[in-house]
Amino acid sequence: MGTAAAGAIAGLLLAHGFWLLVILDVTTSLAFAVIVAVGVPRGYDTASAKPARDGYAIPARDRVLMAALVFLLIGLILYARPPTRCPWRWSPSP
User: Fold this and answer.
1) What residue intervals traverse the membrane (predicted)?
2) pLDDT tens sequence across 29-64
């Protein structure tokens, strides 16, 4: 929803001039730079860092995640086909 709203707002701003869109972009970029400069801690605490455990073995043991991935793959196979006609589709000759 945010992506659609951003495109619509950008279109409205472009209708009034490109400079308005550039000023808004610069303003938001500077605002987020200030948020990062103030809110992100500077150091890295090596004492509290934990070593990596098993890599992909931890999520691979999660049955709900694996089931969701299977259903996602099935959905991709069924619905994300290229918009061309299948070569094996048979139609009767007249």
Assistant:
1) 64-80
2) 999 999 999 988 877 766 666 666 667 888 888 999
What's the pTM value of the predicted model, to 2 decimals?
A: 0.41
Question: Alpha-carbon distance 49 to 37, whole Å?
Answer: 23
Where would I find the H helices in 17-62?
Answer: 18-39, 57-60
H or E segment and range at residue 81: none
Tokens (6 digits) for 39? 């809110």
Task: Domain ranges for the chain, please list them.
Answer: 2-38+57-79
Packing angle between helix 18-39 and helix 2-16, nearest 10 degrees? 130
